[in-house]
Every structure is written in structure tokens, then in C-alpha cells.
From TrEMBL:
CDD domains linked to this entry: LolA (cd16325)
SUPFAM superfamilies referenced in this protein's UniProt entry, alphabetically: Prokaryotic lipoproteins and lipoprotein localization factors
Signal peptide: 1-22
Organism: Ralstonia solanacearum
Keywords: Lipoprotein, Plasmid, Signal
Protein name according to UniProt: Outer membrane lipoprotein carrier protein LolA
InterPro entries per UniProt: LolA/LolB/LppX, OM_lipoprot_carrier_LolA-like
Amino acid sequence: MGRLMLALLLASAAALANPVLADDTRDSTVVSQVAAQLGRARGVRARFTQTQTLLSMQRPLVSTGTLLFSRERGVIWQIEQPLRLTYVVTEAGVRTLDAAGKPVPGSQRNAAGIAQVSRMMRAMLGGDLSAMYSQFDVAAQGTPAHWRLRLTPTQPQLAQALRGLDLHGDTYVRGITIRAVSGDETRLEFTDSASVDTLSPAELALLGAS
């Protein structure tokens, strides 16, 4: 997940106020419909599979786990394989926990990047895509029932490292592909997505609810 966060960090920055809309009226309409649809859920629970294909590695790197997104409280990423690790991201900051629920020593050195990326993911999963539009040209295909977005970086600093991002989904975001200029590729697929209205006591505790 650390590699995932670093890859996604290339595609994110602090949320900017003025969104850049899609290239034409039709694309803008699709994007607006998708954002409205994603924004209906107060929370989303899903499983994820991350697959990284790196030119320096003979085999893809695969990790799996669960994601809980709460618009009001934050995000919990729980990695199950190949190791157990949990990232808890709230407005107060980032905590990294090991399999026993204990803080991971030294994890704060990546906390800023993880928090930034998770804020972007939190906004995106909640239907607020403006943070991404402020840095990318957007091409859209399909309908709210089956859509695809291709994001091409417009900022030179991003374009030096990132070729683009592809997103697809329906009622929920189903997948994200991050294509690096180096030829490396990271795919994140979400399955078993479901809307969440009520969190468990354990989840509330992780997110710091009183």
C-alpha cells in the first residue's frame, strides 16, 4: 500500500477550488452525472486488489484488503495480503497500525503523502472530483450506468512522471489505473462495493469517534 500511496500521490495535490471541466459539453455532462451519482452515498465499503506491474520486477506485486470510506469521518485502508497493515486517515492526521493494532514505528515519514492521497480518494469516492480536474484534462465515455474517465496531466511537474489515469465504474468507482511515464502501471480494482450508513463500534473507535 505504501507504493500505491506514492503512485497516487503523483495524481493528487491539495484540493483546488476551481475545477477544470471536461473538454466538451458531452464530456462535461457525463462527468457531472457521475459526480452526482457517486456523491449520493454517505459511505462506501469495498474490497480492493492492487496490482503493480513494474519494469524492474519479473512478476506483478499484488496486495489485497478492504476499504471503508466515510464522508463524515475518514478512510480506513486495511491490507490483508501479503501483510496485515491498516492506514487510518482522518482530519486529525494519519495512523498506521500493525496486525495487532499497534502503531508502526517510523510510519509518520510517509504520513503527509498518505493523508494527501486519501483526502483525494475520499473526495473522489464521495463524488467530488474537482481536485483531479484542477490538474488534468478529462475525457469521458459512457453513461452513469457504465462510465470511463481518462485523465491526462496538464501540469508539467505531473506530466514528467505520470502519463495518465483511467477510472471506470457505475454507481461506485470500480477501478483506477495509474500509468507512469517510466512504463510502470498500478491497477486498483474495487469489488463488493456497498453503501454504508452506520459504522461498527470498532470502526468508529479507529476513526476517533467519541
